[in-house]
Amino acid sequence: MPNALIYARISKDKTGAGLGVDRQERDCRKLADRLGATVLDVYVDNDISAYGGKHRPGYRAMLDRMTQGGIDYVLCWATDRLHRRVDDLREYADISIKHGVLTHAVTAGIIDLSTGSGLFAAQINGAFAELESTRKSERVKAAQEQAARAGKWLGGRRPYGWAFEDGAPVIVDDEAERIRVMHDAVLSGQSIRSIVDGLNSAGALTSYDGHWTRNTVRQVLKRPRNAGLATYRGQILDGHASTFPAIVSEATHRAVVAKLTDPNRARSTSNRVKYLLSGIAQCECGRLMVKATVKPQATSLYRVYKCQASGRGHAHKKMEAADAHVLDVVTAILHSDAGLDATPSSNDDARQQLEDEAATLRQMTDEAADSRFRGTIDQRQMERITVPANARLADIERQLADLHAASQTPGVLSAEGRATLAAQWDTGDLEERRRILRAAFGVVITRTPPGAARRFEPSTVRIAVKANAGPLTPEQVETVVAAEVAAGQTSITLLP
Ligand SMILES: [Zn+2]
């Protein structure tokens, strides 16, 4: 039975998947089983880089064992675990050949160093490993230089909040105070616009005597330097302090950056959307549509909504026509009793009937109780009236509860809900109307049928009435697209 040694090494520069020593050893033991070999010893060097001539006690011990003879295989996970320098390889190859040891790597198969091609392959592997180690140490050096440079001022426009004394940054008190106020303002929910207005109306100037804009405020607020953090090419370098003294805490800095990059904030404040349906209308593929400008000829230019995925399968629609259509249809829906079919009104009728009946029953039981009190009927007579009446009343309560639930059920805007929305819709600005659309409606734009390219085709802008807020789900889009609409007709789908 052949004998095998296992060598495993883990270095700081972990590459590949799962190169822990345990994993290397486990894979090598499986390999030994396949070779029918007995594992005599396992040699491990942990967390020591082979490059740079560092002492590898495990490796040295294994070479000693190899020279004692009786070893058929050295098993390793990959040849670069075994040796990373060509010099290492020469010594290893000499011992291997002299004592007839074959090297078997889990990832590379058998390497017979006694043959020319095997030795050559191992040399190539070793040479690459050596090159990679060299590159790595160059990268580390470069990174250290970058880190050293990152915290220093490399010249250019003076950053707001600091001045330089003998080349070293020092805090400018009034500017630093304004920076802190700006941070507080963002965290308390103020818009960038109001911060800009506040700075400009107070006569504050930027570090180059300019007026504040939304951009300059955002730039100043997003600087990691504010919290004394060093950066290189936009990345915060952990563990490297900037030479700039901090103006705010790191926690404050991170909270403000999180707020500034929150997509909800962009929508509600600084980048106010000016288009009714952008980010609301959905292509028939389900994606949200965005505003785009089309310039078919040198003299003409118009706006469209287009699918975020462009191409043949995706819709685009002239903005003006789509907006006008949606405004018309939604206004009609909100103001019309018939707009949502008969469901809500028949619901109301049924509720009215039940409530009338309940009122009658209550009157009957009240009168029966009065009669009993006056002594004109006896207990049994009273119960013959009240027991069935109370049973029927309980039944009616259940039915009314069901109807109420139904009126809250998706797809049906109750009459009251519709009246409230109609009032908000009629008086609301663009943002308010977008809010209402997002809350209760869906807009799906389908592709323009062939031959209808020049005129607006109402059947391609489909309105859904829904109960869930936000965009339609893929299933809902499918339902809306599947609804049959004749050319020239408006489509309104009630979604469950
Ligand atoms: Zn699409």
From TrEMBL:
<dbReference type="GO" id="GO:0003677">
    <property type="term" value="F:DNA binding"/>
</dbReference>
<protein>
    <recommendedName>
        <fullName>Serine recombinase</fullName>
    </recommendedName>
</protein>
<dbReference type="Pfam" id="PF00239">
    <property type="entry name" value="Resolvase"/>
</dbReference>
<dbReference type="GO" id="GO:0000150">
    <property type="term" value="F:DNA strand exchange activity"/>
</dbReference>
<dbReference type="InterPro" id="IPR011109">
    <property type="entry name" value="DNA_bind_recombinase_dom"/>
</dbReference>
<dbReference type="InterPro" id="IPR038109">
    <property type="entry name" value="DNA_bind_recomb_sf"/>
</dbReference>
<dbReference type="InterPro" id="IPR050639">
    <property type="entry name" value="SSR_resolvase"/>
</dbReference>
<dbReference type="InterPro" id="IPR006119">
    <property type="entry name" value="Resolv_N"/>
</dbReference>
<dbReference type="Pfam" id="PF07508">
    <property type="entry name" value="Recombinase"/>
</dbReference>
<feature type="domain" description="Resolvase/invertase-type recombinase catalytic">
    <location>
        <begin position="3"/>
        <end position="151"/>
    </location>
</feature>
<dbReference type="InterPro" id="IPR036162">
    <property type="entry name" value="Resolvase-like_N_sf"/>
</dbReference>
<feature type="domain" description="Recombinase">
    <location>
        <begin position="159"/>
        <end position="266"/>
    </location>
</feature>
